[in-house]
Amino acid sequence: MRFMMLMLPAGYAKATPDTRPDPDAVAKMMVYNKSLQQAGVLLALDGLHPASAGARVTTVDGKVKVNDGPFAEAKEVVGGYWMIDVSSRDEAIAWASRCPLAAGDTIEIRQVFEMADFPAEVQKAADGFQDPRQTAA
Amino acid sequence: MATDIHRTVEAVWRIESPRLIAGLARMVRDVGLAEELAQDALVAALERWPESGVPDNPGAWLMTTAKHRAIDQLRRKKLIERKHEALAHEPEFAPADGGLELEAMLDDDIGDDLLRLIFTACHPVLSAESRAALTLRLMGGLTTDEIARAFLVPEPTIAQRIVRAKRTLADKQIPFEVPRGEERDERLASVLEVLYLIFNEGYAATSGDDWMRPELCSEAMRLGRVLTGLAPQEPEVLGLLALMEIQASRLRARTTSNGEPILLPDQDRSRWDPLLIRRGLAALERIEKLGGTTGPYALQAAIAACHARARTADATDWPRIAALYAALALVMPSPVVELNRAVAVAMASGPEAGLALVDALADEPLLRNYHLLPSVRGDLLSRLQRHDEARDEFERAASLARNTRERSFLQQRAAACADAARSQA
């Protein structure tokens, strides 16, 4: 089963757009990343620019609204993610527990939906897409 | 609480056991004994951790515990003093802080040990099914019960298979090593064969009601990724991984919610897993850089990639697939490859051209009971509007298929041909 480990670095919500990670922290993280890779569980990973360089797009009363970062209301923002393939939620937790976290950093673990996780009616709704005659070529 | 700890210990075991067993096997030179020692350490963890809590570096804890037991064992067996002292002077694992750095330092060593472990588990002295079971047990950290369920075999059968395999390795005094030169290539081929067997057992289960057992696919891919890390310069290791990942990208699109198979041209390609496809295509690029595009797994991966790149079934580059099958037939001549080539040729140049190749395989003894031969022939005949003959072929294919889902699918195709023949008449 696939899990996304979302890294919520301490203070990243307030980080300025030019904030870059500390080389020592990166070196430690690379050791960790390598251990995920060598165990064959790592599918993908990425680090994200600070939220202050990003934007939030929402709709208000049916109209698209764009807010540039930083986002005053956000306490925690995502700083990066790992996509891993493991045999259980406990294994995902065990992997997250090995991450070299700085004080206040948080990793949130979220399982990726598989078709079998959906109730029958949702699966059925998705089933229509399987008929090639119903999809534009 | 106790069950929480129990599950945590199981998760730690799954992560640590291959490295644990590999490191111990280097010390005691016996994978069977190494596994028992590792199991003892697991039992000790299950006893101690509920009270003491999970240590900060659980892997190091397990290794230290197992090593002490190994030294006790060796002492009891009165092995020669020299060996005993060498073991006693091996550096102990550092405490929790700095554990990661130490792990990194040990990585090279443990990498060699893991490679030795997988080569030993896949030794050709063992039957293919024993190799698969032992590999899942030693390299995958799976319990005998899990392996038994995955292979739809009673647990005692798997347990016995593993015990016998370990005994064979000990009796034949198979050294715990990675062979060199030509023997290395042969043995690597055996390792790849075992991983692909595990994958295929999951991808297209040969018997039973479930058309696929995805956990086995996941496990084979996980082991494939481990192996690409251990032997990064081997294009065929990358080739097998790319092949498995691209094939697995279609797992979600291969069956309806009722479990009925959906054939490749009818699959909804938006359901293919883009992450696995991207990984597979990236591996193929690395194979090109390594200059290994002519290996059998690399070629099969390249064929799978042709499908992955096509946004619709009609956009498939069939001439390229036919050419890749022709190249594959050179390095891995087999009637099954020839049958696949026939399908590709039929798609590239029309059903008659394909049928000519299929008919050349009619007397092939290896395909006598292979349901895909009549199934392919039936498909080509029906496209040539020869529905009566097509029906006979599909009926024959259905009688040969061992998987219940596949059988009912072939019976449906036979019935459709019968209908078409009636409306033709």
UniProtKB/TrEMBL annotation, chain A:
From the UniProt record, list the coiled-coil ranges.
none
Record's signal peptide: none
Q: Which domain of life is it from?
A: Bacteria
| Pfam families for this protein | YCII
Please report the stretch or stretches of sequence annotated as the YCII-related domain. Answer: 9-115
Can you tell me which family this protein belongs to?
Answer: Belongs to the YciI family.
Check the record and name the InterPro entries matching this protein: Dimeric_a/b-barrel, YCII
| Name of the protein this chain belongs to | YciI family protein
